[in-house]
Design goal:
Length: 345
């Protein structure tokens, strides 16, 4: 194995390592031919998520190919609504679809009592992956943040315009608060089970955290994720990474929350700003534009070196500002990993 033993967890505890640990968002995915083969075998995307043997296989594929420092559980942020009793499916070429929670009375049908029955295959996947990984490599569990998951539940699909979703939250405040509370408790319980099954750290993805008024962000993004971290840490001692994607200067408040061991930054956050304002609070992860890995060559190499330079001397985990896109050439990923491994800084 290249890199430092336990590099990912050591960095989350505040150590500065050179070269830094590496993993990538969406490191298991359609850009890998071996993933596409398993995906075809599985049937639907949800069938793949709920098949421990195949989900373990695709989780391990990028570790075998690139010798990364951490695996991230192959699952989806919409497994929680599915476990709560909403109809969830994935339309070919269109992404996720859900039975929308337009009316507050639909919330009465959601049942958090038996989520672990539905999610038990996920915990088995965690166990399988942890048993296959060498001890020096970390396994990251994850879940969607309540605000992001709620946006899918309300709209019935992904939505880049948060205004209609904010309007729902304002108009149906009590029902929306109930939904957020339900997502906080179920998500915490889900993450605790992942850790008990073998995950070494957890990341909470708030993919739709951008474009929100500051009070709204604090109430519905920062505070629910903080509560999840608090609930998790009461039961299991595990690092929690927050990823409030594209929340701009509000990242500083997230990083300053003592319950978070680190924050993952998106492609739009200036690296120098992040190093100055976020690094004093803990580990920073991410930042590279995944489209540069599609491009490859000198543009990718130059950006990677710039990112490494920006966080030199600080606890940093090399990652993307968002996930790999399907047309990413795997050989470009291999070159990127090699460049980082050879870095002396």
């Amino acid at each position: 194995m290249t890199g430092h033993p336990h590099a990912f967890l050591r960095t989350l505890s505040g150590e500065v390592l050179s070269p830094p640990p590496i993993w990538f968002m969406r490191q298991a995915g359609r850009y890998l031919p071996e993933y596409r083969a398993v995906r075809k075998e599985a049937g639907s995307f949800l069938d793949l998520c709920y098949n421990p043997e195949l989900a373990c296989e695709v989780t391990m594929q990028p570790i075998r190919r690139y010798d990364l420092d951490a695996a991230i559980l192959f699952a989806d942020i919409l497994l929680i609504p599915d476990a709560l009793g909403l109809d969830v499916w994935f339309a070919q070429g269109e992404g996720p679809r859900l039975e929308p929670v337009f009316a507050p009375e639909v919330l009465d049908r959601l049942d958090p009592a038996n989520i672990h029955d539905r999610l038990s295959p996920i915990y088995e996947t965690v166990e399988r992956v942890r048993s296959e990984l060498v001890p020096e490599k970390a396994l990251i569990g994850f879940a969607g943040a309540p605000w992001t998951v709620a946006t899918y539940m309300i709209a019935g699909r992904g939505s880049k315009d948060p205004s209609a979703l904010r309007a729902f939250a304002y108009e149906h405040e009590d029902a929306f608060n109930d939904l957020i509370d339900m997502l906080v408790t179920t998500t915490a319980a889900y993450l605790i089970r992942q850790v008990q099954a073998g995950a070494n750290a957890v990341q909470i993805f708030d993919s739709w955290a951008s474009g929100l008024p500051e009070p709204f962000f604090r109430r519905y993004c920062l505070e629910p994720v903080r509560r999840i971290a608090e609930m998790v840490k009461v039961v299991v001692d595990v690092p929690v990474i927050a990823f409030p994607r594209a929340c701009g200067p509000l990242y500083e408040d997230v990083a300053a929350e003592p319950l978070f061991a680190g924050v993952s930054i998106d492609t739009g956050l200036p690296w120098a700003w992040a190093a100055k304002h976020l690094s004093p609070h803990g580990a920073v992860q991410g930042g590279l534009d995944p489209l540069l890995v599609v491009q490859g060559g000198e543009p990718m190499r130059e950006a990677a070196r710039g990112l490494l330079k920006a966080f030199a001397g600080k606890p940093f985990i090399f990652n993307l500002g968002h996930g790999f896109v399907p047309h990413t050439p795997p050989e470009n990923v291999a070159e990127l990993v090699s460049l980082i491994r050879d870095h002396k800084g």
